[in-house]
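Lay summary. Proteins are chains of building blocks that fold into shapes, and those shapes determine what they do. In this project we predict the shape from the chain. Here is one chain we studied, written as its sequence of building blocks.
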Amino acid sequence: MGRLVVVVLLLGAVVLLLRPLGDGSPSGWPIRMPALIDGGGTVTVLALGLDRRGTEPARADVILLVRIGPPGQPPAVLSIPRDLWVDIPEQGEDRINSAYVWGELNTGDGTVLTQRTIEENFGVQVDRVAVFDFACFEHVVDAAGGVTVDVARQIVDQTYPTEEGGTTALVFEPGPQTLSGERALQYVRTRSADTDFGRIRRQHQVITALVEGLRNPVTSLRVGFTMMTRCPSAGTELSLADVGLLGAVVATSGDPRFELLDESAVSPTVTPTGAQVLLPHWDQIRPLVAELFGARGPR
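And here is the predicted shape, written in a compact code that computers can read:
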């Protein structure tokens, strides 16, 4: 039971559903949790929500940088638009979510190249890379009893993609409502009604509601059990003592601080090949990244 509680605290802290990587993943956390608590250190996690359809290479549909620590400070979460135009090491310029595709195609592992892309463009040292899939997200939201959000305006998407490769129509009416796991996933993924920035803001809504639900001990236990039984490979490479100490830091650190690279930080453009992308304004982005993560500048 104690292990379930601290695992859920960890999940709530990074406000994502972490799933450790398999073979070929980064080798875990480079600092021990006692150093995090006693020495005022931080841990930076790159979290990737993968959109995988059939046999096609996966794309990172959700890209989050998460900072935990130093003790006493709330966790920080930075959402990065998937269409951000960046330099991908050894590939050239492309959308940032394509780094995962190139990594899978070239080495069979998209996480390493995505981590390099983030580090070299944003100047952040990533301590841990984690992925989560959408089925796990649905299970966890259902285990939490759903999430309650206030839909600002009607959302209609006539071509929402299905797992089978087709499309379906979906509608969200305005006003407060509690969403099941399936509906919550639709809510955070659809972008037909607005831009990718609207999608990211809806993600923040759902994450905040989920974290709030995890404050209930019974809900936390139920979600932790679901993670262990319904999400393949869910868990952590940390020792139980490490996870417990990290959970203690999070429990006393306050609500996460959410930031996103919004319309003021990018300029929409179209590439010569017709791709709609977002050009980054690094003079605005890098000071924010440095504030959140203590970044050292691009490599």
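What the prediction tells us: The first helix runs from residue 2 to 14.
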